[in-house]
Every structure is written in structure tokens, then in C-alpha cells.
Amino acid sequence: MLCQICGKNPATVHFTEIHDNKMSEIHVCERCAEEKGMQASASQHKFEIADLLAGMVDAMTQTEEERVGHVQCPRCGLLYSSFKETGRLGCGECYTAFQFQLRPLLRRIHGDTRHRGKHPSRGGEGAVRTRQIQRMHDELQSAVEREDFEKAAALRDEIRRLEAEHGAGSAPEGRS
Amino acid sequence: MSMPRNFDELFEATSPWLLGEGPHAEMVLSTRIRLARNLRDVPFTHRAREEQLQGVLASVQSAAQQSPSLHDGLLLRMSECTPIDRQVLVERHLVSHELGDGARPRGILIAADQRLSLMINEEDHLRLQALTPGFQLAEAWALADRADDELDVSLDFAFSEEIGYLTSCPTNAGTGLRASVLIHLPALVLLEDIQQVLKSVTQVGLNVRGLYGEHSEVMGNLFQISNQTTLGRSEHDSIESLERVTRQIIETEERARERMLRDARIQIEDKVWRAYGTLRYCRSIHAREVINLCSAVRLGVAMGLPGLCPLRTLNELLVLTQPAHLQRSQGGDLSPADRNIVRARLVRERLAAADHEAGANPQG
Predict the structure, then answer these.
(1) CA distances in angstroms from B266 to B46, B151, B269, B274, B276, listed in the order given
(2) What is the pTM of this model?
(3) What is the ipTM of this complex?
(4) pLDDT tier at B101, thresholds 50, 70, 90
(5) Cβ contacts of A104 on chain B, cutoff 8 Å
């Protein structure tokens, strides 16, 4: 890939930049990076996440930022403010502790906030059914978007039947 | 392929991804699938204490022993590897720079067939990698998926129903999947169509990097294309989208090659043979020049020019001429100037051996 500034040298420095809530990547050569004062650091990956977070925090007021910064993971003790600096979470529990802060970040990174991939085998039959219902909810939503109401109605009935069969407790997480 | 039992044997063996086999091997050097996983009860690597990381190493090792895909693998602890050995592993795409620093309890487990490997205590506790030659996303995914299922039997992975597999960096959360292909695009670079292609690749949510992954520079017209996001799409969807885009890029490159050969066949052939000549007879050469000249020869091989070396030799040269490989084969530190001399000799010898094997006359 060639440098996006001079268009001559190979791009060896990669930056993620945020402008007007839009993320863009910039690929430049070392010389242009130096000239523009965009020095590459050894921990560029962290820098990108910190950058991404900085862009989000801009939208917050000073007090909001302080309050959010003091949120702490009850399990590993990581402060949200440290995550902001390093771009690394401390443990799996941090995802729950910081869920309100992470949700918009995940959306920004991935364009989505919900997992649609494979699952560990653990969790037994209940978990398998929860996933099945969750998948059907997804199908239902896309059927509604496609205005395929016949399919949507069939899915809705099937979801109701499954949920009734296995009690209300089987409603998927994160849905009301 | 014989199973390496120690570092020396691993060093002598050719990594399978360099074999120059598999579909579209003349254009796609290798296909990689990486899965990031963490253990539920241990803080992520950078927040874990030394003894917790020792515990992770031990539980992963024991889980691997139960896994048919990994049970007879070779475990190398980074603390027991010399800096040059660690760098050799980086140059073979088996470990990342981060794992290569060796300061904490970290390791790499390499399966007997060397297509599967498992980095332990890198940014995430587990980084499972399937690396296959050529363009074989489905095969690489099947290898990684199976090993992941096998490890999952004895390990309790950090997972949430909503977010999926939980990773140290939120950019990997969800599937933890990074699928990538290493692809050679000389005609698109030469005809200056590459910017357009790369732009459209990034527009569909894929990422482009150089030969050595994140933040590495593009050399020898080699590009690594991978999925960018891991949340909201299934592994199948991510892989399918990479597959589809890669096929389109292959076709675009093929068309560009046809155009190039139609308009300037003799100039291209000249470039190929001059590159081959330089490699075959050089006396001092820089690693970057080897990579760039190999790119021209690779194009010649793909064009079907007779008398050049096989793809496998070109792939091997990419790795064997890197600094740590050269220094290890010479048994110690070399100054950059000496490296260039040793590198030139290695390149000449490899090409002469390939000639000899083919029984061809290099004067052709």
C-alpha cells in the first residue's frame, strides 16, 4: 500500500482517526508521518483504542467523564479510566461492570453489540434452547424488516410455544 | 511430515504454509484462521499474576493433551527460548511480536503437522491458529474449529450470551476470529489499480496489512487481507465474506496480468529473468531486496515461464532469509553486512539446488 499523503513511498504507519463520529484509517509512510508530527509508537494498537475512546469521551462533559472513569470492575479491580488509557480490559467480568460504557464502543468498532457466532459446549440444554430462541428472534426481526409478515407471524408463534414449554426463564438475555 | 520433537527439528522442518500447495497457490501463499479465547476464572494476561499465568500454561497444556488435534504437539516456553529462537518463531508466523518478548510465562504449542498452533498467554490466554498453504479458508476453519471444540471440553472459556467470547481487547470480542489470506498482487500494483482495489476491500469491512501482520509494511507486493469485525456476524459469515472478496481480487489480478502480458510481455519477462539472475548470482543482498525479487520470479512462475524455481523455494526464501533464521543457521549474531553476504549465499544455494532437482539448465 502506498502512502496516502505523498503517494510515493510504501505506507508503513497506520492510524485510526475519528472525525465527526466517523472512524477512518490513514496509511502513510514514515517520512510523511514524521513531517505531520504523527509519530508511530511501539504500542500503536493500544493507541488506536485509546484514540477511539478519546473520540467518544469528547461527547461527555467533564463531570460525566470523571464519574465514568471511577467505575470499577468488582472482580479484577480495573478502573474504567485505566481501560481508557490502555485499551485492554482486565477480565471477563469487566464486560459486565462497564457494559453501559462498552456498548457504544462495541457498536462503533463492530457495528453491532450482539454475538452471533459459535458457543462453548458448556451451559447444557437450557443454554442451547436459549440460543435457539435468540436465533429465532433474529430471524423474526429480519422477517419484519423484509415485510414478510407471514413468516414473522409463524416465527412469533413458534417462539411463544418454545418459551411456554420451558418457562418464562428461557427468555434470552438483553431483551425485555 | 515428521513431527518436530524440539526446536532444532522444528527449525529444520519446512512450515506447511510455505509448501506452495493448495488452491491458487501461485497467488495466495497462505490462509490463516485465528481464534482468541480466555479462561473464565483468570484475569486477562496483562492483569494476571505470574503464578496465575503459570496456571494457565498448565491447564492449557493438559487440555491440549486431551485434544486429538493437539495432543502430540511441541510446547515451547518463551522463557526457555533464546531471543533469536523467539524471533525465528515470529518470522515463521507462529508467534506474534507480543508473545515473542518472552518476559512472562508464555508459550507456543505447535501441533505435529505444524498447521495448528496455540499461543498461550499472549494478549489473550489462548490464541489458536490454523495456517494452511494456498487459498483454503474452509479447511483452515475446520481445523481451528475442531481444535477449539476439543479444548472447550476441558477448559471453561470466558463467554457471555450477549457478547460472545470475551477478549482482552474489545476489538476481538464476539467470535474472537481473525481470518486472513496472504495474497500476491504484482500486476495490480504495477498497473496502479491497487489503491482502488484496497479501497473497496476496506469499504466492505475487511482489513489490509503487510506480510508481518498488524502495522507491518507491504513488501514484495504481498498483502494480508482479513476480517475487521468480530461481533454481530457469525464465523461462517465473516469467512464467507473474506472468501468472496478474495475470489474477486484473484479475478481482478488475473485480468490485470492478462492485460499486462498483452501490452508488455517482453518487458515483464525481462523483469522476471533479471530478478532471477540477481537472486541466482548475487554476492550480498538485503532481505527486502530478496522479497521484492522473489515477487517478480513468483509472477514468472505463475505465467508458466519454464526454467524458474518452484513456488515452494520462493516461499521458503521469504522466511529463511529473514535475520533470525540466518543468524540461527549460522549459529550466532551477525552484523547486517555479514548477514547480507550469508543471505546471498543461501539464496544462491537454494536456487542451485532447485535447478539441480528439476534437472533444468539455468542458462535456458
Answers:
(1) 56, 54, 5, 12, 15
(2) 0.80
(3) 0.87
(4) low
(5) none
